[in-house]
Predict the structure.
Amino acid sequence: MRILMIGAGGVGDAAARIACERDFFELFVVADYDLARAERTVAAARERRPFESRFVAAQVDASSAEAVAALARQHQATHVFNAVDPRFVMPIFDGAKAAGAGYLDMAMSLSRPHPEKPYEQTGVKLGDEQFAQAEQWEADGQLALVGIGVEPGLSDVFARYAADHLFSHITELGTRDGANLAVFDEHGKEIFAPGFSIWTVIEECLNPPVIHEKGKGWYTVEPFAEPEIFEFPEGIGPVECVHVEHEEVLLMPRWVEADKVTFKYGLGETMINILRVLHELGLHRTDQVNVKGVEVSPRDVVAACLPDPATIGPRMQGKTCAGLWVTGTGKDGRPRRTYLYHVVDNADSMRDYGSQCVVWQTALNPIVALELLATGVWSGAGVKGPEAFDAVPFLDLLAAPKPEGYGSPWGMEDR
């Protein structure tokens, strides 16, 4: 396997640090618009393993499918791994296809709200542009594995596992994400600093959230609708979660039978208030506005004013939890309520990888998936989500102690 990873931000940097411990690939190209950033990621990966020579840095314009395809051909990449924000999904997706390479991403093509009824009906849904090309990918014999981060990604693997091994009937597949993370400045004062790209957070949280129900299909509700208190494991505790637009709701119903599919995110009161203010002021917008003769995107300005998520790890404390709340009827015919989850402590990911926990947890899962593809345990063609594949090999490899596996156990609670 020869991997071309586009993006050397927080997630891409963590992915390279994780991948360098594994032997399933022969080349790992780290490409970024900023060559120096790609070179720093390559240097960090090489330092983690004696005589490591499989990593090389490259420069690429991720907005150009032609540039992505040319770089993939240059390095004879068998797989293109998209580790940049979802604005660049389609050019990277198209570039991989043009080069005849497989494709993986952690966020899917962007949605566009319904023009007349944004909080009732879907418009262009997350991933629609990619799924429109599914037959072409299948005809080419290539696989685009979409939504293989942690959420979406591991949560979708949990859905497949629950359907195959735990439940005879699923009432709801409810992704629930929460944390007790805090970031502090140099004086020890807690500050606002999201653990993930604020550009992506704004996109997810201010778009109309999508819900799927059997017999009704996909529909939308108001942002931050139906708040609930969810109890997260391993000391995180109760967190208020609200509806947010997310890929799981667009992926799970395609391969897993469930009466209802939802995604709720533990944003917290501060984040919700900030997002509402950004929306009221128009600072969530991505179109360019003129500021003293300079054309800028308001959302890009917001992102530039906040700390880079890749740099806040040393000042972050707490744990993050990604998981799936499943209700329905167990294999024994009795009612069942189960939370499948994965928790990462920031202290652990910083100590072992020098990566803060949110980006590390996201980066881990595509590397596990790449290994399963390299070994032929997972295979296929077309545009598919993680729930289209057998969950057991993934979960076993994720949890198995090193060096056989990745040494990152997942958990399960019946409630």
Notes: Residues 183 and 189 are 8 Å apart (CA to CA). The first strand starts at residue 2 and ends at 6. The mean pLDDT is 94.
